[in-house]
């Protein structure tokens, strides 16, 4: 039975479109896989998410969940990628340190290999793009963590 | 002749009480550094002199002479347990029932830093190796607290390692994401975290209750920890440990700018290793 007829034939096209938006938008937002809706996020956050998915998600997880056993060295003696969500420790670092780590990379001193634990992206991403990634990461944290990180960044 | 002797005796009898009154407090406090009570904690002051905490109280040792220092005012159930030296040479004392105190050398008195701590149950504290205003305190019921303003404001930073912390150390060993590393001696061994409090993990596989921990500021990868009276050394930042043979059970540790590693023992002795590895009393 057509939807218009279900509504006793009184549903105008405008109301129909409105209803469709109400039904479809939450579904689209849910399908986007994160807490940030593509319809509500500031442009920088949306951009940061896109960059995150392209450059970061392969190691840190599509939802920022990190490697499964990130707290212990892997079989190569390297520290696995930590989560960026509220279960990790990204929120404990100030903006400057996060920027530096993304741009320059970082090697955990107790890694058994010499390679960088976190690769450097300063050649691949502009300063603005790195800033956008950081803004996206902030959408993965709790209010308390956001407050802590804001204080650390002062 | 008898008149001279009489006048001399008379003068002495008048002067002697005055001399006694002046010297008595000094004589009572300054004693050779011999005390057989176990050492609870050790540190050095800005002059490089050792400060020793025992059940009998706190003493500073200068040229082999121990001089008593007052303890902070506290309830009778307070247990001074932890000594630390700040990056500016300030001395800190902490313990369960006591909280955290800083010694004001100019005023020769202790200053309470407990206004914003939730309780006084501090089992261990540490001072940042290079930032004079940054302090850390572990509360048995509360977790890890940090102050970045010399103890005026304490903020909870995390719960700490899974096991309760008995001894605490901040080190400026390189490689941290922030400004250094924290080493916590727990009932399970040594836990390590960068000072961002990113994550507490095991520092190697040393197991047992850690009662004291210290490091060599001149070679920060060198960490020393005491587990049940046995001294252990790590030359790689806590990744691997070896035990060191000391002729007595060790109860306290400090790194002196003069003697290097100094241990306090269960018998109340202060020992330091010589170049050939033999341990000898510090003030002989």
Account of the protein in words:
The complex is a heterodimer of chains A (154) and B (284). By secondary structure, chain A is an all-alpha fold. Chain A contains seven helices and no strands. Chain A has helices at residues 3-6, 13-31, 43-55, 57-60, 95-104, 127-138, 143-153. Chain B has 284 residues and is mainly beta. Chain B has a single domain (37-272), classed as Methylamine Dehydrogenase, Chain H (7 Propeller), CATH 2.130.10.10. The longest helix of chain B has 28 residues, at 2-29. Chain B is globular and about 75 Å long. Residues 20-29 of chain B have low confidence and may be disordered. The A-B interface holds A 71-72, 82, 89, 92-93, 97, 101, 106, 108-110 and B 174-175, 177-178, 196-199, 201, 237, 239.
Kindly state the mean pLDDT of chain A as a whole number? 81
- Name the shape of chain B in a single word: globular
* Poorly predicted sequence stretches spanning 5 or more consecutive residues of chain B: 20-29
Which whole number gives the mean pLDDT of chain B? 89
What's the CATH H-level homologous superfamily of chain B? Answer: YVTN repeat-like/Quinoprotein amine dehydrogenase
Cα Rg of chain B: 21 Å
Distance N to C terminus of chain A: 60 Å
Parts with pLDDT < 50 across at least 5 consecutive residues of chain A: 1-11, 18-34
| Computed structural class of chain B | mainly beta
The CATH class of chain B, by name, is Mainly Beta
Largest sheet of chain A: none
Widest β-sheet, arrangement of strands of chain B: 1-5-4-3-2
């Amino acid at each position: 039975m057509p939807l218009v007829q279900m509504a006793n034939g009184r549903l105008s096209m405008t109301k129909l479109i409105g209803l469709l938006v109400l039904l479809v938008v939450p579904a689209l937002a849910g399908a986007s896989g994160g807490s940030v809706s593509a319809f509500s996020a500031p442009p920088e956050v949306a951009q940061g998410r896109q960059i995150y998915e392209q450059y970061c998600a392969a190691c840190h997880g599509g939802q920022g969940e990190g490697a499964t056993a990130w707290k212990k060295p892997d079989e190569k003696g390297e520290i696995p990628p930590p989560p960026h969500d509220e279960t990790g420790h990204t929120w404990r670092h100030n903006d400057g340190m996060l920027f530096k780590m993304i741009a320059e990379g970082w090697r955990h001193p107790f890694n058994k290999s010499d390679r960088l634990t976190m690769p450097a992206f300063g050649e691949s991403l502009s300063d603005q793009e790195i800033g956008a990634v950081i803004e996206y990461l902030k959408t993965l944290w709790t209010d308390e963590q956001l407050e802590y990180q804001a204080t650390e960044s002062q | 002749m008898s008149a001279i002797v009489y006048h001399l005796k008379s003068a002495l009898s008048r002067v002697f009480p005055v001399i006694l009154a002046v010297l008595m407090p000094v004589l009572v406090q300054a004693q050779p550094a011999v005390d057989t009570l176990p050492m609870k904690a050790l540190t050095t002051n800005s002059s490089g002199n050792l400060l020793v905490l025992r059940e009998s109280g706190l003493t500073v040792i200068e040229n082999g002479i121990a001089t008593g220092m007052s303890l902070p005012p506290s309830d009778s159930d307070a247990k001074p347990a932890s000594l630390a030296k700040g990056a500016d040479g300030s001395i800190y004392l902490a313990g369960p029932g006591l909280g955290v105190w800083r010694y004001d050398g100019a005023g020769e008195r202790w200053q309470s830093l407990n206004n914003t701590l939730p309780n006084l149950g501090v089992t261990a504290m540490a001072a940042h190796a290079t930032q004079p205003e940054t302090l850390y305190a572990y509360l048995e019921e509360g977790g890890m607290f940090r102050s970045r303003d010399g103890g005026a404001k304490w903020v909870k930073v995390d719960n700490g390692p899974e096991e309760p912390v008995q001894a605490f150390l901040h080190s400026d060993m390189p490689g941290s994401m922030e400004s250094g590393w924290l080493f916590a001696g727990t009932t399970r061994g040594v836990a390590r975290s960068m000072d961002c409090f990113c994550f507490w993990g095991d520092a190697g596989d040393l197991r047992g209750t850690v009662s004291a921990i210290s490091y060599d500021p001149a070679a920060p990868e060198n960490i020393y920890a005491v587990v049940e009276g046995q001294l252990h050394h790590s030359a790689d930042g806590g990744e691997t440990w070896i035990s060191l043979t000391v002729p007595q059970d060790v109860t306290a540790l400090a790194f002196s700018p003069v003697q290097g590693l100094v241990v306090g023992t269960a018998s109340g002795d202060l020992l330091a290793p010589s170049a050939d590895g033999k341990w000898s009393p510090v003030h002989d």
